[in-house]
Design a protein that fits this description.
There is one protein chain. This protein is an alpha+beta fold. 45% of the residues lie in helices and 21% in strands. The protein contains 16 helices and 8 strands. A 5-stranded mixed sheet has the order 2-8-7-4-5. The two termini are 21 Å apart.
Length: 369
């Protein structure tokens, strides 16, 4: 079994962090810091641990924020020498959180610190505190970061302004009106770095959940003169609208506007299935014309009250069919315990989707072991 992610900031990490700071600032009360930091660490999950370590550092660093940041940045140089980058060095997270917690009124110093620290981990959570407190100044900085030479800093410009960023405070004003986000994404939509493009696509996907037509309109304009990199961003950014069956999305992605088939048939391998077993979907139909389609499937899950209150769409395959061609496909889906989904016994429903439209459905009963 994989080690819990929260252990990236464990007892050993606290000792290492204390030693790093002690090595650059001899007045650091390292023993006291470690004792304080370990008091509640085991009770907390990963993100809360980073926050708690930042607050623990604040007790033992100089009261002057500028002096404290200078110490943390000097300590971070040792992390840089170990050649970690991106999400690889979790020890940098408490340092980044320190900037968010205590540097909100020191914009220039804090922006400089985030620029140096984010390549070690990511400043996407920290920068949101500045967007909420000082939007115009922070937004101007993020526009500059979108043109930075370092891919981690360019990514920060996009990831930090995502309106629905997971694990982070929601940017409700930008959810209501995403207009300020687009100039940043415009700069990054064809970025040569996949790390950056993935963030741009995720940002677009966020916006599409509140403003689908705006996203479709802008991506349609991009598509007219799109590079290969921009096309990648468009495809991945529209993924939620594809799953939702938004009819305007499919032609934009090169798929047929309408679905023209007959004789659809879905068979399931089990009428009754024990949690942990694999369900096999057998789906076939006849294509009445030459067409390109997106084939997905949706499972409607039973909730605690015995009703179908949850559903999830799963990717299957993009297909191109000739007129008169019969398609027969199978898909295996294992229903197993995972941390993000709780299963309940009862009748579940499976739907096969073509371009988001439900074409065939079947049901099975899920049993608990």
């Amino acid at each position: 079994m994989a080690e819990p992610l929260k252990n990236k900031l464990n007892t050993a990490a606290v000792h290492e962090l204390g030693s790093l700071i002690d090595s650059v600032w001899p007045d650091f009360a390292m023993t006291d810091f470690i004792e304080t930091a370990l008091l509640k660490l085991d009770e907390l999950e990963l993100k809360a641990r980073a926050d708690y370590l930042a607050r623990s550092l604040h007790v033992y660093l100089p009261d002057d924020y500028v002096d404290a940041i200078a110490i943390l940045l000097q300590a971070s140089e040792y992390l840089r020498e170990e050649q970690f980058s991106g999400w690889e060095h979790y020890l940098a997270w408490p340092l980044i959180d320190y900037v968010a917690l205590y540097g909100i009124n020191h914009l220039h110093v804090s922006f400089t610190a985030l620029e140096k620290l984010t390549p070690l981990f990511t400043g996407e959570f920290a920068i949101r505190f500045f967007l909420l407190a000082h939007f115009q100044e922070t937004y101007a900085q993020m526009l500059k970061w979108a043109e930075h030479d370092d891919e981690h800093i360019r990514r920060l410009a996009s990831e930090g302004i995502r309106p629905r960023l997971p694990w982070a405070p929601q940017l409700t004003d930008l959810r209501d009106d995403p207009t300020p986000i687009w100039p940043i994404l415009e700069k990054l939509k064809g970025d040569h770095s996949l790390y950056v493009r993935r963030s741009v696509a995720n940002n677009i996907n966020d916006i599409s959940k509140d403003h689908p037509q705006t996203v479709i309109d802008i991506c349609s304009e991009w598509e007219k003169s799109a590079s290969q990199n921009t096309n990648w961003v468009i495809r991945h950014g529209l993924r939620s609208l594809v799953k939702q069956g938004n009819a305007d999305v499919y032609p934009l992605l090169g798929f047929s506007q309408s679905v023209d088939i007959e004789q659809p048939l879905l068979r399931l391998s089990h009428a009754r299935l024990l949690l942990g077993q694999t369900l096999v979907l057998d789906f076939g139909f006849l294509s009445k014309q030459t067409q390109s389609l997106v084939l997905d499937y949706r499972i409607r899950f039973v909730g605690a009250a015995g009703k179908m209150t949850r559903e999830k769409v799963f990717k299957w395959k993009n297909i191109h069919l000739a007129e008169g061609e019969y398609l027969q496909m199978q898909k295996r889906h294992t229903l197993q315990k995972i941390s993000t989904r709780k299963y309940y016994p009862g009748i579940h429903e499976v739907e096969c989707l073509l371009n988001g439209q439900c074409i065939a459905r079947a049901s099975f009963e899920l049993l608990m072991p």
